[in-house]
Records
---
Amino acid sequence: MAAPLPDYVLDATARILSALLPLFERAPGPVANPTRFSAYRRLVAELKGDTRAAARSGTLAEDVVAIAEGYRVAASDQRAVIRGLERVVVTARAQILTEPRGPTLTRQRLNEQILLMHFEAVALGEVANAVSAIAPRSYDEARALRQRLGRAFDVAIDRASDIGLFDLMRPLREAQAAMTRDLIERGRPLARLVAYETGVPLPANVLAHRFYQDGSRAGELFAENGATDHPSFMPMAGRAYSR
């Protein structure tokens, strides 16, 4: 029979769960799969309701995987999923660890790092899955995603190496490489963003006719120039797709 976990272990694990689980509570945008949404929300509520029991659970690692996967699968807006999972990664990295005063607390610090690294790696794995489900709007968006998320993977790989999680480094590298290849291949043929200038604010549909001879593309111009409040008054200096 396994020895009971000391209070300081339970408390530290509960603190981490209390910081990270709430990030999964709200769906990142409209719900596409109500069944999966309800299932992962129930699991979040169960773990959050008794974080000490969750710390003692033999299935905590698997539960974190199920929550992150449910968070992605349940949502219709995969760009919002990516942003939400990036918040999980940033929050995991920001957690304050136990001061390693003596062998016992040093081991506890490592336990905390391993749990936080698990959240981080699982979130990044689901980020890569979400990326494969979106259609980049332009070469520039694909490149920006590749660079931003590539840096997140680089940091995660370094953090895993620092605490000796060498078995975790390989799947992180593989996920990063697959995501990078995908974004390069899908981004290469896409239109690029170019700057435009007008003498006066013009409606988006006028600009769409001027640039593309297609007024139906006014919405994408408005979306690309988020600083404006109304499509009837586009900024005089903005960005448009090259074709």
---
Amino acid sequence: MLNHAGDPYLGGKLIDWALIERLLVPAAVSQLGLTDLRRDNPKWRGNFAKLKRAAEDAKIHLSRRDLYELMVDLVADEHELPERPTGDWRADLTGLAHGSRAIMRRHPWMSRLMSAAYGFSPNSMKFLEYSLWCLDPLDLPYGQKVELVAMVNGVVTTYVANEIETAERTRSLPWSAEREQEIRTAHLAKELATGRYPRLAAAVAADSGPVDMEAVFDRALSRVLDSFARG
């Protein structure tokens, strides 16, 4: 079981309504012209109750893998994609990466589920298509462009997973985060004083201040982009 960390999607509290409002209702509006089909419209209250029961039944019959893919696709719809890229592929891809990071932080379970197996659902394909559009100015074969998008997504997923694990560990501590830092710092100083770790000691001495995690994220992202900019 995945820890949903308070996210109602994974706990099933919202996924039924997400199925209805993001999949069933748009299809009904498009195919049947029911422009007033809304959850807050009293006219359709009974119909929405039936849709809710149908969504619950459908969810029961989905395999866990199918359910996870559906959840990832529903969340992928939260990407606020601009109407068109700016023409600056680095800036555009950086913006997409920060958007993905924000979404994964809102849904802590998502970084654990991200997989190439979930790459061809509708919203995931829409995101990939837009990402490739951003890379039009980059003179590379499409295979390498797809590889670049995958590597950027990998940086985001790995980074967010680490952020979430750190936050969950901090919440589980029997003392404050500040006390934990004091204990770790004291232990590290004691070990470095033995002289067994001269290079590590030099690294700590060169930069003993708090780590700017935002800057670390941006550097990791930039280095991936740099590697493809060189062709």
---
Amino acid sequence: MNILFDEFADVPVGDGAMRMHLFRPVGAGRFPALMFFSEIYQVTRPIRRLATTLAGQGFLVGVPEVYHEFEPVGACLAYDAQGTERGNALKVTKSIAAFDSDAQAGLGYLASHPASTGMLGTVGKCLGGHLALRAAFDERVKATACFYPTDIHSSTLGEGRNDDTFSRLEELKAEALFVWGRQDPHIPFAGRQQIRERLEAVGVSYEWLEFNAAHAFMRDEGHRYDPVLTARALSAAVQLFHRSLR
């Protein structure tokens, strides 16, 4: 399946616009839509490749620039110490309300896109895994895949480092997939257990995969990349979306 990967839309948000990069199968047709939230580095080459892979499974994929208020349009942060410092600083500078309004606007855009069936899912990695989970509180979202989502157990996302995602898990009606690396220092065993116990307590419908892998093992640049585990994680996500977004 050939993929269109160079389209974008500037989605109105607040007093400005959020650039959303679009990926979809070539040709006529309507597809379930996925809002794909990136890592702290924005829409990098590894993120674009992963979005292309998801689109190749029969989805319209929209990837927003999560730091559009702070960075020039099209900007990516480098996978180095300076880029990491900047990305981590911005995730606690931007307000939770702004993250949430971006998600609402993006989902609305994807639901009404001519190539969309109107069925919506969310997916994300790292910061984006957390944002994908929050976006799935929206009742329009039927499934979410969260790859090593950070800051859920500690409730430290956003301005003031005091998000309410963990306390709101009982609101999650979408079917969920969580994928973790056991050697990930950002979400230690105790943090993962805290999340899982809460999911059980509030009756969320979810799948849970843990691999012997480091943080960012799905990023196909750098020494932590594990292609075999990435394929397994993506297969689980695609099965979830095909099942839930029909």
